[in-house]
Design brief:
The chain is an alpha/beta fold and 219 residues long. It has 2 domains: 2-130, Response regulator (Rossmann fold); 136-218, Winged helix-like DNA-binding domain superfamily/Winged helix DNA-binding domain (Arc Repressor Mutant, subunit A, Orthogonal Bundle). Helix content is 53%, strand content 14%. Strand 1 (2-6), helix 1 and strand 2 (26-31) form a beta-alpha-beta unit. Helix 2 (34-44) packs parallel to helix 3 (62-73), helix 7 packs across helix 10 (203-218) and helix 8 crosses helix 9 (179-192). This is Response regulator transcription factor. The modification 4-aspartylphosphate is found at residue 52.
C-alpha cells in the first residue's frame, strides 16, 4: 500500500509516517501544504492519501479542497481525512462525491492505533470509515420533523453503524443481534427513506448521505 501524508503539524506528520512504516506500509511522501501534496499525488500515484482538513495558508478548508482535487486527478484514490474537530459540512462535501474509498476520522483516533489502522485498511479496500464521534454528533442534531425521525431507535443505531462504514456482520456483532435482524432493519430503513432498489445507486451510501444532508440543513 503506497501512502502520501499531507499534515501541517510536523510532529503528527512524522509520527504517522513512523507508525505506518512500522506496519510495513510504504509511505512514499510526506508534506505540509496542499500544493506539494497534489504534486506528490501526481508523482507517486499512491493508493491512499491521508489529509488534514485544515492546512496553510488560511487553515480553513484547504485540505478538503486538495483531497477533492486529488480524487479528481486520480479516480479511485482512497482518501482518509483527519480533523481535530467534527466539521459536518466538510464530511458532507466529501461524501457527496461518493463514499467509496473515503474515510473521515478525528485526529484523536490516530492514538488508538488498531482502530486507526483498521479504518485505513477499510478505506484502502474500497470501503468507508467515518469516525463514530462524527456520526454521534450528526445524529444528535436530527430535527424532530426530519424524515429520519421515522426510524426506530434500533434502526437509527443500524444507520449510525452503516455511516461508520460497517458491513452487516460487523453491525450484528456490535449490536449483539443476528445478521438476519440487521438485514430486516436495513430493509426497513430503505423503505422509510423511500430508497427503492436501483442498480445505479448504493442505497447504504444514499441513506447515510440523506442523514448528513438533513443535519447540514439544520446547521
Amino acid at each position: 500500500m503506497r501512502i502520501v501524508i499531507a499534515e501541517d503539524d510536523a510532529l503528527l506528520r512524522e509520527g504517522l509516517a513512523l507508525l505506518l512504516r512500522a506496519e510495513q506500509l510504504d509511505v512514499v511522501a510526506v508534506t505540509g501544504a496542499p500544493d506539494t501534496f497534489l504534486a506528490a499525488v501526481d508523482e507517486h500515484r499512491p493508493d491512499v492519501a491521508i489529509v488534514d482538513v485544515r492546512m496553510p495558508p488560511t487553515h480553513t478548508d484547504e485540505g478538503i479542497v486538495a483531497a477533492v482535487e486529488a480524487r479528481r486527478r486520480q479516480p479511485g484514490l482512497a482518501v482518509l481525512v483527519l480533523s481535530a474537530y467534527v466539521e459536518q459540512a466538510f464530511a458532507t462535501d466529501l461524501l457527496a462525491g461518493g463514499a467509496a474509498r473515503l474515510g473521515y476520522l478525528l485526529k484523536e483516533r490516530v492514538g488508538r492505533v488498531e482502530e486507526f489502522l483498521e479504518a485505513l485498511h477499510r478505506v484502502a479496500g474500497g470501503g468507508t470509515a467515518i469516525d463514530p464521534e462524527v456520526v454521534r454528533q450528526l445524529f444528535a442534531r436530527t430535527r424532530p420533523d426530519s424524515t429520519l425521525s421515522l426510524l426506530s431507535p434500533r434502526e437509527r443505531d443500524v444507520l449510525a453503524l452503516m455511516a461508520e462504514g460497517l458491513g452487516n456482520t460487523a453491525i450484528a456483532e456490535r449490536l449483539f443481534v443476528t445478521e438476519g435482524a440487521v438485514h430486516k432493519h436495513i430493509r426497513s430503513i430503505f423503505a422509510k427513506l423511500g430508497l427503492a432498489p436501483d442498480d445505479r445507486a448504493d442505497r447504504r451510501v444514499t441513506a447515510v448521505l440523506r442523514h448528513l444532508e438533513d443535519t447540514r440543513r439544520l446547521g
